[in-house]
Amino acid sequence: MNPIIEVKNFTKKYGDFIAVNNISFEVEEGSIFAFLGPNGAGKSTTINTLCTIFEKTSGTLLIDGKDITEQKSEARAAIGVVFQESTLDVKMTIEENLKMHCVFYNIPKKEVEERIQFVLKLVDLLDERKKIVGALSGGMKRRVEIARGLIHYPKVLFLDEPTTGLDPQTRAHIWEYILKLQKERNITIFLTTHYMEEAEICHKVAIIDGGVIVAYDTPYALKKKHTKDKAYITTKEPMALENVLSQYSLSYIKKEGYYRVEVEYLEPLLEVLSQHKEHITNIEIKKGTFNDVFLEITGKTIREEA
Ligand SMILES: Nc1ncnc2c1ncn2[C@@H]1O[C@H](COP(=O)(O)OP(=O)(O)OP(=O)(O)O)[C@@H](O)[C@H]1O
């Protein structure tokens, strides 16, 4: 696979303060990459530098092989950005907003109509093009932002918390478009999110904390490494259950009314329990979550609903 984003030994200082400290990572072309971290970790600093908005202090940052400092305009041409705060002109129609963006990107006049049709089709807004942006729902506005971010046909789309503040159904729709872009158009998606279930469906995740990358892997590998599955067992014969668990070296925590057993692999535990089911009145299994991963790695929970 081909890395489309390459960050090598990137450092960013604000005065004497080191906000990002010598980080390196790559994003594969055509993948969905999640960049996570608690507040103040260095996410915005890294993204704004990659998007050529901030100047780096040191290191090498390449987008589609273009150095973001030496070849700023080529790097810019390869990226689309959707910020958390809407930057649409609410008094104009969808179409007018898109046309204005075509002017910013010097898109030849004869290509404008074709591009507007293409991007609005991607986010299912072709029939709404004449509507005033101010009258649209939050989810529709986000779709217009995504369409606008794509109008110059970038290879990488940066999405800063694309679904924050949207209701679950609209969030699911936005994800349909994100997956469509990645699958059908091979566009690389670089996103930040504080919804852990969204991070979980990305191909790769990097977690930044205190200006350094503290984890970088697939969600599956991170969950495997950093979480345990839990079984909550209820019994009417505590002594017998404790004996069984001890016999198989399964450590447990006795709680009021139930026992909690944490295991790396569920299968051996289930095997043991099935052999001794006469001692068990109820069992509930909880798989490790990506929230557990984040907590284990950073010691913090990612902030809840905005
Ligand atoms: N212009 C600035 N001058 C000085 N310090 C800054 C500046 N911008 C950011 N910082 C500091 O750099 C660190 C990283 O900030 P950054 O905004 O990159 O974090 P973040 O991970 O995006 O956080 P959040 O999730 O809160 O947006 C923080 O300690 C922040 O206070």
From TrEMBL:
Gene3D superfamilies: P-loop containing nucleotide triphosphate hydrolases. SUPFAM superfamilies: P-loop containing nucleoside triphosphate hydrolases (SSF52540). Signal peptide: none annotated. One of its GO terms (molecular function) is ATP hydrolysis activity. Keywords: ATP-binding, Nucleotide-binding. Residues 5-235 form the ABC transporter domain. SMART domains: AAA (SM00382). The keyword Nucleotide-binding applies. This is ABC-2 type transport system ATP-binding protein. It comes from Natranaerovirga pectinivora. The lineage of its organism: Bacteria, Bacillati, Bacillota, Clostridia, Lachnospirales.
